[in-house]
Amino acid sequence: MRQYLTRVFVIAVAVGAFGGAAYAQTMNAAVQVKLDSRVQAIKAWAAEPAIVAAVKAINAGEPAENAAMTEDRWSMLSILDPFVRAFSRNDAAGVLKARRGAEVSEAFVSAANGDKVAFLAKTTSWCHKGKAKHDAPMAGKTWQGPLEVDKSSGVEQIQLSVPVLDGGKPIGSLVVGFAISKLR
Fold first, then answer.
1. Is residue 22 one of the residues assigned to a domain?
2. Which of 24, 55, 109, 137 could form a disulfide with 173 if both were Cys (CB 3.0 to 4.6 A apart)?
3. 6 occurs within a structural domain
């Protein structure tokens, strides 16, 4: 009896793994088409004058409080902290809010150094320099991340990022997370 149950368990696990993989491939193909159709819209967001101006301003002279921010300090700040709230209440954040659709789970803009400029809600990390989601756009490329559960929003999502351009030159990045449940 024990051998029988072991075989049934092994077969069930194998079927679940292969069935899940087939589901994921189908889901990914359908979701990928939808994500591909969003890239041009995100590039339009990144070209909005308020976003370009906000990134240029930080690149020209980052405020002392921003320059002194560390990942440890950032993680300790509440979403109600005035420093944090300022990033969701500036003109660039206003563009993100105005453009946000139901499928957008998060969006944030970073300056050339990877530090935050604006966002919809507090991000897990203060600086994204050294991460592909920022470095690829800084090289003029579009980037797409893996399917993941976002630490800051708790939503299963895929992130897309594009460069913020000034005169065709990357000066920052815009990352937008898309909730998979809303793209199905």
1. no
2. 137
3. no
Q: Which helix (H) or strand (E) holds 78?
A: none
Instruction: Give the DSSP per-residue string, 127-176.
Output: B-TTSHHHHHHHTT--EE--SEE-TTT--EEEEEEEEEEETTEEEEEEEE
CATH of the domain at 158: 3.30.450.20
The CA–CA distances, whole Å, from 177 to 11, 60, 92, 161, 169 equal 36, 27, 17, 9, 24
Q: For residue 64, what are the domain limits? A: 39-183
Q: Is 117 helix (H, G, I), strand (E, B) or coil?
A: strand
Would you say residue 23 lies in a domain?
no
What does the pLDDT profile of the chain (184 residues) look like in tens digits?
A: 555 444 434 344 443 444 444 334 445 787 788 899 999 999 999 999 999 999 999 999 999 999 999 999 999 999 999 999 999 999 999 999 999 999 999 999 999 999 999 999 999 999 999 999 999 999 999 999 999 998 877 889 999 999 999 999 999 999 999 999 998 7
Q: How far lies 9's CA from each of 15, 17, 19, 77, in Å?
A: 10, 12, 15, 47
Q: What is the number of structural domains in the chain?
A: 1
Both structure tokens of 106: 């998060």
